[in-house]
Automatic annotation (TrEMBL), chain A:
Location of this chain's protein in the cell: Cell inner membrane
InterPro entries for this protein: ABC_transp_permease, LivM-like
GO cellular component, one term: plasma membrane
Membrane topology: Multi-pass membrane protein
Regions that span the bilayer: 20-38, 50-83, 95-117, 124-145, 165-187, 218-242, 254-280, 289-306
Protein name: Amino acid/amide ABC transporter membrane protein 2 (HAAT family)
Record keywords, A-Z: Cell membrane, Membrane, Transmembrane, Transmembrane helix
Signal peptide range in chain numbering: none
Gene Ontology MF term list: branched-chain amino acid transmembrane transporter activity
Organism: Marinomonas pollencensis
TrEMBL record, chain B:
SUPFAM superfamilies: P-loop containing nucleoside triphosphate hydrolases
Domain of life: Bacteria
Name of a matching Pfam family: BCA_ABC_TP_C
InterPro entries associated with the record: AAA+_ATPase (IPR003593), ABC_AA/LPS_Transport (IPR051120), ABC_transporter-like_ATP-bd (IPR003439), BCA_ABC_TP_C (IPR032823), P-loop_NTPase (IPR027417)
Lineage: Bacteria, Pseudomonadati, Pseudomonadota, Gammaproteobacteria, Oceanospirillales
ABC transporter domain residues: 9-242
Protein name, per record: Amino acid/amide ABC transporter ATP-binding protein 1 (HAAT family)
Native source organism of the sequence: Marinomonas pollencensis
Sorted UniProt keywords: ATP-binding, Nucleotide-binding, Transport
Amino acid sequence: MSQWTNSVTIQRWTPSSRYAIVFAGLVLVLLALAPLFASNGLLDRLTALFIYVILAAMWNALAGYGGLISVGQQAFFGLGAYFTIRIADLGLDPFISVALAALIVGVISYPISLVMLRLKGGEFAIGMWVVASILHLMVNLDGLIQGETGISLVSLNHYDSAQRLTIIYLLTLGSMAGLLALLFFVLRSKTGSAIQAIRDNEEAATSVGVKPEKTKQLLFVIAAFGIGVAGALWLTSATTFLPKTYFSVQWSAYMIFMVLVGGIGKFEGAILGAIIFFLVETWFSSTGVWYLVSLGAIAIAFSLFLPKGIWGELERRFNWHFLPVGYQVVEKNKINTDKK
Amino acid sequence: MTHAVSNGLLASDLVKNFGSVSVLKNINFSMNADEAVGIVGPNGAGKTTLLSALAGAFQLDQGSILLNNQDVTEKCASARCNLGVVRTHQIPKPFDGMTVFENVLVAASYGVDADKQTAYQHTLNAIQLSGMEHVANRQAESLGLLDRKRLELARALATQPKILLLDEIAGGLTEAESVQLVDTIKELRRQGIGIIWIEHIVHVLLQVAERLICMDSGEIIADGEPQAVLSNPQVVKAYLGGGIE
C-alpha cells in the first residue's frame, strides 16, 4: 500500500526555475542600476513597461487564475490616480500619497467585492465596467478635479526633473518587483490552489472544504490594490490627472491583450505579454487607429488559434516552468530534473 | 428507519421544493458512522437531492440534520466537509486546469486541518488508494471517465472523511472497472469510513451495502436489509413493475 507513496516526493522547484529566479534577480539589480547609465527617455519608457507588467500580472491573477474576467479594472487604476491627487492636495509628499492612495483603493475594493462577487461570468465582467463608469462619474463630482478638465500633481514640482524621474523609476521598479513577489507567494500557497479550484468548479471546491467567498475577496482586493498602485504611479509619470483617460476601458483592453498574448493563467505569460505589448506600442503606436485595430485583431487571433498564449505554447512544447506555482510528483531517484 | 445516533447522521423531516416541484417530502433517515447504506430508486426519486441535502449543497425548506448529535442544518458544504461529511458528484466535477495531484491536494489542504507535509501525505495516499498513481501529474481535463470518477473519489478521501457520500460512482464504468471500484470502497469500509452510496447498478452496490433504502417520488418507500428491500412489492412496483437484477 505504501510502496508508491514512499517512492515519490513533491517537487516545486526545478533547476531551470532556480536559474530563472537567479536570472530575474540579476535583471532586477541591473534595472535598479539603470539610472546610473540610462538616458531619461529610456528610464521613462521602462517606467511605462513596469506599470504594464503590474497591470498584466494583476489581471492575469484575477482572470487567469481566479476565473474572474473583468472589463472594469480601470476603476482601480483611476481611483489610484485620483486618491494620489486628493491626498497630495492635503500637503503630503506626492510619493507618500501614492502609497496611501493604493492602500485606500485596496480598502475600498473590499465592499465593492462583497457586491460584485455575487455576480458570475459575463455579469461580473460587465458589472465591473459599470462600477468603473460610476466611479468615474463620482470622481468628476469632486470640485478639486474640475470635471474632465482634470488637474496636475503639482507637488511633484518640489523635486527637480532628473531626481523626480529617478525616484519614479525606482519606485515603479520596486513596486513591480514587490507586487510580482506577492502574487507569486499567494499563488504558490494553498490559497493559490483554492483560487484555481474555484475558477474550475466552485461547487466542487466548496464540497472539499474551500470557502469561495473569502478566497475570491482576497484575490479581488489584491488585484485592485495592485492596479491602484499602477494608476498612482502612472500619474506620477504623466503628472496630469484626466478622469476620462484614467477611467477609460482601454486599460482593461490593454490588460486583456497582454494576458491573452502572453498566456492566460501562466505567471510568466503575463510578464511576457506586457513586454510584447510594450514593444508593439513603442514601434507601432504612431500608426494611430490602425494600432488599436491591430491590437484587437491580434488578441482575437490568439484567442482562436493559441488560446494558452505564447508562454502556454512554450510550456507545452519545452516543458518550461521558470516561475512554477504548481506541483510535480517525482520519483525520489529523479529529483532535480526538469523532466516530467 | 430513524433512531437517535450519537455517532452518525440523523435527518428529520427533510423537505425540499424546487419551485412547485416537491423533491424531498418529509424524509426521515439515520445512519451510524460505521454503516454502509445503499440508496436505490428510479430517476427523479430524489436520491441525489437527498445526498446534496446531507452534504450541505443547499438550504432545506424544512427539517434538520444532526451529525454526531451536532445540528449542522445551517452549515454549508464546506463546513460539513470539515466535520467529516464529504460527497462525490454524479457528473464528475474535476478542477480541469490543475493536475490530479493538485486537485486532490486542494481537498487535503482544506478538508481537514493539516500541515503541508501531512496534506502531501494524505494526497498521495488518496491517489494511491484510488489507483491514480500513473496519472498523478496529468491535467484533469485530459482524463477519461474512469479516471474522472476516481478523481472524485480521491478528492473526497483526501479530506479524511468519516462519512462518504457517493453519487452513482459506478455509472458508465465497465464490469472490470466496477470490480476495481468495489475493491477500493471495500478498503474504505475496512478503514471504518461510513458510506452512503446511490447507485443504479444494484449488484455492484450490494457488494458493499449492508442496508438498502429505496426512494420514489421524494419519499423513502423501503429501508432495511438489502434482499428484503428488493423483494418489497412497493419497491418492485417503483421499478416499473419488474424485479431488480
